[in-house]
Amino acid sequence: MVSAVEVPSTLGFTSAASLDAVYGDGTAARVHSSRILVVGAGGVGCELVKNLASTGFSHITLIDLDTIDVSNLNRQFLFRKHHVGKSKAVEAAATITAMVPSTEIEGIVGNIKDTKFGISFFKSFNIVCCALDNLEARRHVNRMCLAADVPMIESGSTGYVGQTSVVAKGFECYDCTTRPQPKSYAVCTIRSTPEKPVHCVVWAKFLYELIFGPDDDGNVLKDLDMDTGRAANEASASIPDTEKTGPKEDAKKGKEPVKAPQANGHENGHSEQSTENNGTVIAPKSKRVRYAEGEDPEEFAKRVCELVFVTDIEKQRKMTELWQERAPPLVYDVGGVVDNLSEEFKQPNLSDQTSWTKEKSAVVFRETLKHIASHRKEEVGNLTFDKDDKDALMFVCAASNLRSHAYGVPLQSPFAVKGIAGNIVHAIATTNAVVGGLIVQEALKVMANNGDVRDCLTTFVSKAPVGARVMKILYPEQLRKKNEKCFVCSKGHLQLILDLEKTKLRTVVNTVLQKRMCVLQPTVNLTAGEYHNTLYECGVGLEADEIEEYEQNLEKSLQELRVTDGSELVVSDLAQNLSCTVHVSHASGLYEDKAEWERFRLEGKIQEAEVDTNGVRSEDDSTEDVDDECLEVPVQEMEGSCAAAPNTSVAIADEANVTVTAEGEDRGGKKRSLDHAENGRLDGEPESKKMRGEERESMEAENR
Amino acid sequence: MEAMHELNDVVDGAYIPQDVSSFIRNEEDASSFFTRFSVVIITQMGSIDPTVQCISSACFRANVPVLLVRANGLVGFLRVQAREVCILDAKDDAAAPDLRLHSPFKELEEFASKFNFNEIQDTTVLSHIPFVVILVQAIAQYRKQHGGQLPSSRPQKEEFKEVVKSIRPSCCPDAAENFEEALKGSNLRLCYASAREVPSSTRAVFCDAKSNPITVSGLQPESCDSSQLGRKGAFPEAIRYVKLSKASSTTLAESESNLVQGGSTIAGAARIANDCRVFWLHVAAIRDFMERFGCLPLQGSLPDMAADTESYVSLQKLYSSKARDDARIVAQCVNEIADRHAVDAEDFDEESVRLFCKNASSLRVYRTKSIVEEIESRGKGGFKAAAEMDGALDASQNGTAAPYYALLRAADQFRLEHGREAGSVAEMREADDSLICEYLSAVKEDIGIPGTALLWRDQATEMVRYAGSELHNVCAFMGGIAAQEVTKILTRQFMPLDNTLIVNFAQQTSVTFAA
Fold it and tell me: For residue A458, which of A276, A477, B326, B340 is within the disulfide window of CB 3.0 to 4.6 Å?
């Protein structure tokens, strides 16, 4: 790795001599000549590339698929206002070039999960740094780095806490521990069946951004924005998320070309309903809830009230299957509430701790809509919920209370709503700085040891000095040996329990393999006794008839595909260099009370005494003991159970503490005795929202 | 300054392109110059540096917080110095909700007694009685049996738990969340005798001599000689940074017209002093309330719980109106004290009183020793204990952060005497190494660290190897931490770090202690 190239005396802003002095001779040369990949150009990413370039890393490749959002500017300091809308990777690279001209930095707009970033791409780097904010991409990069045998430096920053760690062959990989499922609300809870104030508050925040915020297809209330007729048809099964994504996407695409702000006119609930009655699938003009330029604020307020609290509720009421166990929502004519409330009501005290009545909420809701439409016109389209923005808070408070009223949920005071709504773990610039510093420290240790990770550590950054003996803010830990049962790095086996008769292959592929196991392009081979067959394959290079056959297989039940109790499925993904054996067990009628795609259990299976031929197998038996306990816990249980190593304490936050990933999440499964409830549950955002505006708490409802 | 302005164009910055020691020669200079700031951050200077000592004493006297932050090789150091920061909201996550279950007020008791569990037939209604009501009834029943006492011993607590279980009607469904909530340890605890006690961290504020409602010494102006403050000294003018417009490059003469009028304001120290006075005024009034009623004013918020809308809302109203009543009593007291001590009425109003009452249990006072005192105390601070706990006094232990406290001092001593960093000249590294060891021995003796000359010998070599280099990643890390502390101090939220942090990046170890 040592380059023959002469090392300049100053690398970045650091002198080569001090690098050599501190980290050992040759470090500066290696730093100068090594190639480093940084995945993610968000809050940590900005800190990281700045530090890397300043330290003297001269060949940096930066990948991010996202564009710059206004909300990023407060901490992603490589970007300026005029960069908004542009690529994070490209702009960050340009800023770094201006700052440290000696750095060769390439910004790539792309998804790291794209097959074009294959193993040979990863192999071209000496170090890979993850500054990601979602679980799936991390798990993918983890696999790629293991396959390419490149050390990966992992990081996370959320609120006041952060962490860094290093993954390399032989050591614990990202899949060795089970990550708790993200704490999120089922989309249907938010959309159709709220039970607690927090559900209504989350809903109200979505509504606020739907009406005044930037376009966001991830908004769970997006269907309010669409042709109601179409939305009603789709929603009739009340099945959210995966099943619904398809048609929803179509509807969206179908409408996109005709989306023109001026076409909005004065749409009100009636005209929407007439559309529904006519059964028109493609609306002649865009039906957006959002405020359209030129619209009369009064009309606008009326229209929104009607749509949200009358039309939509009526639609919800029609889904009778939802209301067998609970009372259907109440229609409330918000627009028709007589405004006989005093002026004081219109200017409510936001620290007020008395709950609002529904009348008050109705008046405030209307007034806030009008107010924003008439006084903050220029910001419409760019507003995102900010708990310190008075109008935003009033809106959310009023809207959530009206929602609560409809669904029989206790109404809240503005103060309480602020508490619930503001309960977001924000991305904090100072934590990013701390984490960015630590990542480079690990990178330098790898450089100092010529690519070896022996001196690397996993480090947890705590919120405040903590400790039984000595108060510390950093909790370093030796890298752990790999988990011998890990299905990614150790050929561990998994056990899948489901109802063979009722489960389709599609569920297994989409939910079990792609979602739970993060396999991108799974190939599924079946071994049932003497019978062998390839059930599914995807990717390029398939014949047309193969594609057709596999498509048909997806719709068949496992039983039809001759999968029996005790069968083995070999799941592989060439791109990820992954191959894993999944043992299938039949359980008749498992989890019938759950949604169709949740009726399975995936567990780590203790491998039968069998010598692993993989050369890197550790001889250290003590790690076995450590990891055994992990396996007692089902690897994936829906309720976010967490297979944690001994003396690991994973605090489970209560519902009110639900948060959204900030710059990224912590590796909750490894969290040790640091008292941060929010920590364990920030893993993962839906793929579509990768690296998106971290400020947007709206994500909490996603991903189910 | 230009880069900073680019990062955030609302930054109003001014600079003095000179070595601080060239115009701060003594404590008086420092007094006149630094007291205009709300916080002072000193970077890459050692605590034994004479200029740092001048600034430290001056700012300590004027109660302007100081942060000393530095990076030397793989070692990071941060020291916060503040004579008194009055924290408005410590954001203590562990704080229990304030529901007054241990001593229910009249309205709460009346409300709770309206529920007769055994008469309610509807199980839905039954399972939506707020747990607060359940516990208020349970505690009333328990008290009746125990001469008005609250459960305090273990058997008593067990007994109380049984009482709670016993008032659950048999027809109540098993899944009734409200009864489960009532039996939750954290909620049962709200009824114990211990719940009446104000937590020690809060009590410290109300036991402080400054909060005495009679004397309210917190209202007295502090011993800082106001004639010293804002004295126009012979300081170089601070040049306000003005963004150069693209069209015309501003000449030096033009930018000089934007000079800040140096030394004319005392905004920083005066504002801090006033903030403290307002703080102690309110604290004194709340203490008065506490002495009269035996508890802090009610916060007035109600946590989420299993309940039907109506009773939840009624309860919520009950609590918030009681909180308002309590705040009103406190406000009266604030007025009385203000009258007695001629405090400007602009400094408080109903709103401020409400806020103080609401946060009463989160009020804190943060105080540190001054840096000068720390040096003079010769190791009487928390360092030795922390080092011992950390295992740093054991010569065989490696990788702890604590030794660098002494080593940074040794390195500073070296710099003071030799005008350069130890190890900065490759040829002299060996000589530097033994010199640093000598300084280290002196420092160890000074701060009372026992042990052989070998103790921390390896770290001394590391220090020489680092040669005062500033590594970007260490700087980024320390900058992040320091910025966080500044934010805490200026917003008066959260407790600032107490008060020294040392990070050893070689092993990613850290230690904090009150030096």
Answer: A477
Q: Is A18 on the interface with B (CB under 8 A)?
A: yes
- Residue of higher predicted confidence among A518 and A696: A518
Are residues B445 and B332 located together in one domain of the fold?
A: no
How far apart (Å, rounded) are the C-alpha atoms in residues B263 and B232?
Answer: 5
Asked if B336 and B432 sit in the same domain, the reply is no
Among the three residues A346, A376, A408, which one is the final residue of a domain in this structure?
Answer: A408
Whether B114 maps to a domain, the answer reads yes
Q: Which of B232, B239, B268 is nearest to B29 (CA)?
A: B232
Boundary (domain end) residue, out of A478, A493, A512: A478
Position B1 pLDDT exceeds 90: no
Using DSSP, state whether B406 is helix, strand or coil.
helix
- From chain B, the residues in CB contact with A401 under 8 A are none
Indicate whether B13 belongs to any domain. no
Contacts of B263 (CB under 8 A, 6+ apart): B32, B33, B36, B230, B231, B232, B233, B235
Report the share of chain A in percent with pLDDT over 90. Answer: 23
The answer to whether residue A642 is catalytic is no
Residue range(s) defining the domain that contains residue A237: 195-408
Is residue B295 located within the same domain as residue B183?
yes
Q: How many CB atoms lie within 10 A of CB A73?
A: 16
Q: Crossing angle for the helix pair B131-145 and B154-166, nearest 10 degrees? A: 120
Distance from CA of A286 to the nearest CA of B (A): 39
Residues of chain B found within 8 Å of residue A361, distances taken between Cβ atoms: none
**Nearest-CB residue to B469 (from A22, A416, A656):** A22
Phi, psi at A147, each rounded to 5°: -65, -40
In this predicted complex, what is the ipTM? Answer: 0.80
Q: Among A188, A456, A518, A580, which one carries the catalytic annotation?
A: A188
Which one of B472, B487, B498 has the shortest CB-CB distance to A54? B472
Query: What pLDDT, in 10s, does the model give residues A447-473?
Result: 999 999 989 999 999 888 888 778 888
Task: Name every chain A residue with its beta carbon within 8 A of the beta carbon of B352.
Answer: none
My answer on whether B412 and B348 are in the same domain is no
- Residue of A54, A410, A434 with shortest CB distance to B309: A410
Range A540-549, long-range pairs (CB < 8 A, 24+ positions):
A540/A115
Domain extent, residue B400, equals 394-466
Q: Which residues of A fall in the annotated binding site for Zn(2+)?
A: 173, 176, 486, 489
Q: What is the mean pLDDT of chain A?
A: 73
Helix ranges (DSSP H) in A457-541: 505-507
Pair type for strands A127-130 and A104-109: unpaired
Same domain, A216 and A101: no
What sign results for the dihedral spanned by CA atoms B90, B95, B97, B99?
A: negative
Nearest CA in chain A to B462: A22
For residue B319, which residues of chain A lie inside 8 Å, CB to CB?
Answer: 353
**A199 and A100 share one domain:** no
In angstroms, how far is the first alpha carbon of chain B from the final one?
33
Separation of alpha carbons B13 and A646, rounded Å:
52
Interchain contact, B481 vs A473, CB within 8 Å: yes
The CATH number of the domain where A227 resides is what?
1.10.10.520
DSSP A697: G
CB contact under 8 A, B471 and A55: yes
Number of structural domains, chain A? 2
Percent of chain B with pLDDT over 70: 92
Phi and psi (nearest 5°) for B481? Answer: -65, -45
> What is the CB neighbour count within 10 angstroms for residue A294?
10
B1 occurs within a structural domain: no
Model pLDDT, residue B233: 58
**DSSP code at position A608:** P
Q: Which of residues 36-55 of A touch B (CB under 8 A)?
A: 47, 50-51, 54-55
